[in-house]
């Protein structure tokens, strides 16, 4: 009888040990939650125009810094999922793009291309330019005619509020201003512009009419174009000032 009770007690102890052991294994096997992350890429032009791009969590915290490559692409390889403010630092002479807010998920579309302005482009696109003086020289075999138009001295407001605006996306607009000289004139005329590689000439319009840039500062734009037809050479020298 004693032997039977002893055997029964040992069996209960063994069962209890197995039960405790099983509980311990169950706790250890509980899965751990891992933070989800996503990659974000973007591009910019020219390829040397940005110094850094950072992503700061919308609620505050440590900013993440993107890696760059030489082709003008930046990458955040692993951002925790959430909302971020993307901020840019431009190289000297370039305009700094505005910060952007974006939700980052596990998968993300590429950010839009950023086009930054060169120093001379910045000078060109910052003001609205009003025509100040235009000198037209006409040359043929027999004579040279010079005609000067001083828009600063013209009476009335209709000429003095006309302007041309160059834009960062390489479009431009001629605007007839608030006071129109002729009611039938269009209010605006759209066109395009681009610099040559060395930025000493402007190519305007669909025909890429070539203008030499004689002056380009914050206070004056002076451009010259020359054309020849039927043995007559016409040169137009135009000076603009900020409106």
Automatic annotation (TrEMBL):
Task: Cite the GO molecular-function annotations of the record.
Answer: carboxypeptidase activity
Name the Gene3D superfamilies for this protein: Carboxypeptidase-like, regulatory domain (2.60.40.1120)
**Any idea which UniProt keywords this protein has?**
Carboxypeptidase, Hydrolase, Protease
From the Swiss-Prot or TrEMBL record, give the protein name: Carboxypeptidase regulatory-like domain-containing protein
- Record organism: Hymenobacter sediminicola
């Amino acid at each position: 009888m004693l032997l039977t009770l002893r055997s029964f007690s040992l069996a209960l102890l063994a069962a209890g040990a197995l039960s405790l052991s099983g509980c311990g294994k169950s706790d250890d096997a509980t899965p751990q939650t891992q933070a989800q992350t996503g990659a974000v890429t973007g591009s910019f032009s020219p390829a040397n125009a940005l110094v850094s791009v950072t992503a700061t969590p919308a609620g505050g915290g440590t900013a993440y810094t993107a890696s760059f490559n030489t082709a003008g692409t930046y990458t955040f390889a692993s951002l925790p999922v959430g909302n971020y403010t993307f901020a840019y630092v431009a190289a000297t002479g370039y305009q700094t793009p505005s910060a952007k807010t974006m939700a980052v998920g596990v998968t993300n579309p590429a950010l839009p291309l950023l086009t930054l302005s060169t120093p001379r482009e910045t000078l060109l696109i910052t003001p609205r330019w009003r025509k100040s003086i235009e000198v037209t020289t006409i040359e043929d075999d027999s004579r040279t005619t010079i005609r000067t138009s001083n828009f600063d001295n013209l009476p009335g407001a209709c000429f003095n509020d006309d302007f041309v605006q160059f834009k960062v996306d390489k479009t431009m607009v001629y605007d007839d201003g608030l006071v129109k000289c002729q009611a039938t004139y269009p209010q605006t005329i759209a066109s395009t512009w681009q610099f040559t590689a060395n930025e000493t000439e402007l190519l305007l319009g669909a025909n890429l009419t070539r203008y030499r840039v004689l002056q380009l500062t914050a206070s004056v734009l002076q451009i010259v174009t020359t054309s020849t037809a039927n043995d007559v050479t016409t040169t137009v020298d135009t000076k603009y000032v900020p409106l």
